[in-house]
Amino acid sequence: MYGPRPNTPLRRTGRPRPPADRRARPGAGGPVSDRPGGARPVWPRAQSGASDPVPSYLVSTGTAQAQPATGTVCAVHDLVKTYPAARGRRGAPATPEVRATDGICLDVRRGEIFGLLGPNGAGKSTLVRQLTGLMRPDSGGVTVLGHDLVRHPERASRLIGYLGQESTALDELTVSLAAETTGRLRGLTAADARAERDAVLGELGLTEIAGRPLKKLSGGQRRLACFAAALVGERPLLVLDEPTTGMDPVARRAVWAAVDRRRAERGTTVLLVTHNVIEAETVLDRVAVIERGKVIACDTPNGLKERVAGEVRVELVWRDRAPLDVPEVAALRASARESGRRWVLRLGPDEARAAVAAVTGGAAFAALDDFTLATPSLEDVYLALGGDATKGLVKS
Amino acid sequence: MRVRGRAGIEQEQRQVTSIVPGHAVTGPVRATADGRTGTPGDATAEEEAGPAPLAPRARVFPSLAAVYRAQLSRARVARIPLLFVATFQSVGIMVLMRGVVDGGSEARAVVAGSSVLVVAFVALNLLAQYFGQLRAGGGLDHYATLPVPPAAVVLGSAGAYASFTVPGTIVTAVAGSVLFGLPLTHLWVLVAVIPLSGAALSGLGAALGLLAPRQELATLLGQLGMSAALLLGVLPADRLPAPMGWARDLLPSTYGVEALSRSFDAHPDWAVVALDLAVCAVVGVLSLAVATWAYRRAAVR
Prior knowledge:
Chain A is an alpha/beta fold. Chain A has helices at 20-24, 63-66, 124-131, 175-185, 190-203, 219-231, 249-266, 277-283, 301-306, 327-333, 349-360, 363-367, 378-384, and strands at 72-83, 98-109, 113-117, 139-144, 147-148, 160-163, 237-241, 269-274, 286-291, 294-299, 312-318, 337-339, 342-347, 368-374. Chain A has two domains: 72-82 and 97-305, P-loop containing nucleotide triphosphate hydrolases (Rossmann fold), CATH 3.40.50; 307-384, Alpha-Beta Plaits. In chain A, the strands form three sheets. A six-stranded mixed sheet of chain A has the order 6-7-8-3-9-10, sandwiched between helices. A four-stranded antiparallel sheet of chain A has the order 2-1-4-5, covered by helices on one side. In chain A, strands 12-13-11-14 form a four-stranded antiparallel sheet. In chain A, strand 4 and strand 5 form a beta hairpin. The radius of gyration of chain A is 23 Å and the shape is globular. Chain B starts with a strand and ends with a helix. Mean pLDDT of chain B is 82; it is low at 1-48.
């Protein structure tokens, strides 16, 4: 039997008291505004002594945070879409009427990376389909750059660059031809489409695989190729539906760098659909949390997290099972969310301290495999807001 | 704030978001973000300045050419189903029929029917499947979110599928003529038969694929259409019972078969050949128009 290493360093790097060495190096602390415009600050490395603990794709998109956001690029008000009830057939049970978007209101400002966060089935994609003119809302309005897209859905394609979740239309094309054809269909001349294709493929590091069909690529590469196609033929608003799904860190970094560049150089606005809370915290300027077709909160990631700032997340991982014979552990169980060996608790600071003391001492210690204390993430915000995060949200 | 036990990779990643001093992140953002969800009445500076200019539409012919070229390139990846299967099938049928039929008008019907069957297999069956799959898999969204005229997508795809039939049809017609001892003199008529029956059948295939409510139905309809072309095209007309004869007259591929079959005469009646091909052309125009309408309908749900 092994307990947790007794010499595990217990560090506190709390927000109110940043470590001295960090404070001494302004500019190393994230997207601080004294950076030259256009430069992409990289998040500082954690100090755990591991070789490179911070994934390189977590690049801050801080450029526009220094610019004042002006004007509304995309305004959505009272958007409602109801899927009719389906009658049950043999083998398929009847489904009741579903309000996929239920009175959604949003404002996306120029140059912003605005996120729609929510679990699968929350209504994100339905909302996006209505924004891009693919689906007519039952009621409500969508205005993009002064154009009423409910009345003129055909204008959406001339204002918005869209990356959907599916690549069926491009699967059998080579990366190069997929990008070029998409550019042509966005109204570029042949020469312009070729030039933009080359530029975008170079920018995203796809030049080497330009001659390979999308079908033969890995999921992440294919996604990156589709992203490349979405960028050819400039648009002032990009709507990206889970763009980094399946991508490795290098590809993710390429995506966010490309987004950042367009934002810095052309003021491009990005509407991003994600169910990845880590990505949401890292790249978004503002995020709307969607649950069952409604916006349950809309703020900056940090603004949202401040709503639950009084709480601490405690994660306990037991070796086999929780030692319920220890009274302190049995008491904790009431407030824990259990999944297998893992317990997640949201506690006040004092309770958290007591809980850690209880499990790191005495009989419970031998049964403990790992534990973490952390400030709340967007996932905790989502839970606190009443969302049902046992499904759908991803942390990676 | 974070106190850590044994570290896993996940925790290391998550640390990124919490180790940064809070004020450094929130400061600049909070200056511009007030956290409200918007209402239609606010922040209308953009609207007051007037709507932003729209990017240009893609014009019909350049985008048709782009779709055609892209679709044509798919033959490199899906060579076997798009180019070879239909040819093997038709040549196989002719070899089979060689034992049953010995020359005369029946041999012409077999060769002409087998050749046009290649067109039916690819342009009708495979195109119906392709559009059915594209529609079911959300692939139409890609085109629907680009400013491209629906006709360009439908005509470009139909044209490409009609083009895939060219090598197979020529190989089948030549092989059949040799096999059954028919003259090769007037095979140049394929120059008109392939595009016109191709237009008719690919229009039909596209319309079926885009109108079918489910992908499986699109596949089924494509298969049925091809089977009908096989049965009613390859079997000599005068041996069919009357109702089958009427069905034969309704099928657009029949007129391609008739045109090709007549060209095996020593002195073909070119007026009748032209009439047959004109029927193909009319069906082609109509079915492509229906397919374009079906595409519009399928793209915006």
